[in-house]
Amino acid sequence: VQLVDSGGGLAQAGGSLRLACVASGDISRIEYMGWYRQAPGKQREWVASLVSDDTAHYSESVQGRFIISGDADVIKRFAYLQMNNLKPGDTAIYLCYAHYSSSAGWAKDYWGQGTQVTVSS
User: What are the residue ranges in the chain where pLDDT is below 70?
Assistant: First the structure.
């Protein structure tokens, strides 16, 4: 599985940004996709995930402000993170991930390259 994430950039507090993630390869065994984020000097933090049945889950810090959605075609699977009412505390590198579950019983998380989100006050 290969992931490419995009979007992000600079926004003012209260503004919005949208992230996108594209998964290719053996997408049929991806159970869920989502994002983590990592701010300087802080541990990596889970942000949101979207299960294959379109059930969304959010961390408390973004609940009510971020919306995760997804789409798919024959050879690719897409995930989007709409980030609204951004706060300076949302500043971080956002990393898309996909949880893959093989038919042999092993599982693995695949990661995108990350995209910077910077929110100014």
Answer: none
